[in-house]
Amino acid sequence: MKARTIASSWKSKPTMEGAGVLLKRAFSHDGVKDLDPFLLLDHFGSDRPEDYRAGFPFHPHRGMETITYLLEGEVEHQDSLGHVGVIGPGDVQWMRAGSGIIHQEMPKGDARNRNSGFQLWANLPATLKMSDWDLGREIAAISPSAPVGRSPRRPGGVSPGALASG
Hints:
The protein is mainly beta and about 170 residues long. The chain is about 0% helix and about 40% strand. It is globular.
């Protein structure tokens, strides 16, 4: 196998998003043009509730997917179609915004006030930009303790599209 060389690297930047959530932005569509279809990669992580408690109140997305992987704490997801659910450590939520959705993500700490994870935004190809919103696709679990290929739990438990680690 041929070794690859690193074309470029950059450092994450402290950023405030939503209603005042502190996070580190590894890249965004404004700063890095060579990562298409990826638009943004954020790491959020703190044991200080004031850094994340305000969350990401209702906001729109369109023409993209968000992939959230949670390491610690919980994130409650709610959307304009009435879906409500919670993801926890080891869970992945994959949301296709398609033609558009309004949703919110509200982080909560664990017993030690920790909340951390990653969110990646991916641009949809033109043929899918006006597709239906989707939060219910099955995906393989990342957590070693989660059964691979388990069907997502539905609203009232974990958000559709999230695979629980327990």
